[in-house]
Amino acid sequence: MKNLLIISLASSISLLTGCTSSTSSNHYSAVTPLQGPTITENNTRYTNGLTCVSERINLSRKIKVTIDQIPDKTGKVNSSEGYKITQGVESMAITALTKIKSIQVVERRNIRSFNIETELMEKKRIGDNRRYKLSNGRTLRYKPLMSGKIHSADYYITGAVTEVNYNIYSGGRLINISGLEMGSKTVMMNVAMDLRIVDVHTLDVIDSISLQKQFVGKRTKSGLYRFIDKNLVNYDGGSSTDEPIQMGVRSLVERGVAQLVGKLFNVKVNECYNDNIKIR
Fold first, then answer.
1. Nearest of 59, 265, 47, 260 to residue 156 by alpha carbon
2. Most buried of 13, 163, 177, 232 (most Cβ within 10 A)?
């Protein structure tokens, strides 16, 4: 009986390996990849507030604002997972600023391509099939490098992610009756960010703000542990749901940008939101 079982297992393994080690004459059907939900706009509950602030600003010209460094200063790094907080806060802030129509965002963070183009223009290697006529009557076949084409910024926003506090609360209930276990647990943490808006020409700090966002995680558990005919029956079930930390950071950025720009134009930002943040 034992030998028969060994022969049967060997035959099964042979059939399986025969499928994977076949020659190129075999044909395989295309596999349709599993597709999840469709792509959506990455908005938070504070995104619409930026549009609200924009609608309350009435200017004849756009104010030019740029984003300076907004680094992660929390020092929270995991050796296996890397940084706990997104390192793309500056990009989030730029996206938030572009939602305010009275603001013209000027790029200062990533100008590598601009520098390459400028260098090529200085070497007279850039052309666009046009002829450029100078004031002295000379005609150029290359695109000349014009001075004063870059607009100066009026203000810049800077700051840092300053706090990550774990387990500011944890609690729950767990009951166990004759091997039947059920319960739930809630854990909370928070992230804080300090932002300020500065006048480029005078370096005066126009306004600064410190905001924090609390995050909730929920755990549910159920289990059955019982001996049936001297055999242990073990069943575990449950779920785990965490509020997205990086989306929360985006919320902080959008709420902070709205308040700083609102302060600049004397907009009552609290009228654009239904939260409990007190606006000066």
1. 260
2. 163
d(CA 139, CA 142): 9
Work out whether strand 63-67 and strand 155-177 pair parallel, antiparallel, or are unpaired: parallel
SS (H, E, C) 82-99: EECCCCCHHHHHHHHHHC
* Residues contacting residue 67 through CB under 8 Å, at least 6 positions apart: 90, 93, 94, 97, 105, 108, 109, 156, 157, 158
Both tokens of 220, joined, read 């549910």
Per-position pLDDT tens, the chain of length 280: 545 444 555 565 555 555 555 555 678 889 999 999 999 999 999 999 999 999 999 888 899 999 999 999 998 887 777 888 999 999 999 999 999 999 999 999 899 998 898 889 888 888 888 888 877 878 888 888 878 888 899 999 999 999 999 989 888 887 877 667 788 889 899 999 999 999 999 999 999 999 999 999 988 878 766 666 666 677 677 788 888 999 999 999 999 999 999 999 999 999 998 765 554 4
